[in-house]
Amino acid sequence: MRIPHSSSLSRHRQGILALNLAIFPFLAIASVAAWAVLSRVSAEEGLIPVKTPVGVVIYAELADTTEKRARGLMFRNSLAKDRGMLFTFTEPKPWTFWMKNTKIPLDIIWLDSKKRIVHIERNVPICTRTDDACPQYQPTEDAMYVLEIAGGMADVLKLQRGATLQFP
Predict the structure, then answer these.
(1) How many Å apart are CA 83 and CA 1, to the nearest integer?
(2) Among 97, 93, 96, 143, which Cα is nearest to 118's?
(3) 78-96 residue pLDDT tens
(4) 10 in helix, strand or coil?
(5) Nearest Cα to Cα of residue 80 among 47, 114, 43, 36
(6) Rounded Cα–Cα distance for residues 38 and 87 (Å)
(7) What is the pLDDT of residues 142-158, one digit of tens each?
């Protein structure tokens, strides 16, 4: 086994560094371009792309009116693993959610104004009650956004308190 001389090792490292510096801008541009395409395509469909820390994109319907927030994901029979609903609010509060008339288990994720996760309720079960006595779910901190996704997906996506999501 030949041990490289220190100057040849240094040249080798310089070559690797130069290659990395040459490739990095292209990767960065490709990443930004891909995000722009995803944003444009989803916007055409009326969905908001929500990028997780592991790079997975959830396409979320926007609940930005009182009516849309009140209905949420009620009466849906299914929710694809890459879909969700993003609730937006005009002021930070510990917004309360419930599962009345919701036919599918959900993960409910509260985010602050910096889009940082402040609370997660995982695998929230459906509520079959016909009165208004379904359990209520509320964070311990104020939130500006709430993301509902299919039950179990927060674990799959390794979402944790303190992680930041990206969306327009």
Answers:
(1) 54
(2) 143
(3) 999 999 999 999 999 999 9
(4) helix
(5) 47
(6) 20
(7) 999 999 999 999 999 99
Rounded to the nearest 10°, the torsion over CA 128, 100, 125, 164 is 170
Domain-wise residue ranges, the chain = 1-44, 46-156
Entry pTM: 0.73
Type of residue found at 110: W
Fold category of 46-156 in CATH = Jelly Rolls (2.60.120)
Q: Tell me which H or E stretch contains 141.
A: none
- Answer for the pair 85, 108: CB distance below 8 angstroms, yes or no: no
What is the token pair recorded at 70? Answer: 């009140």
d(CA 133, CA 100): 9
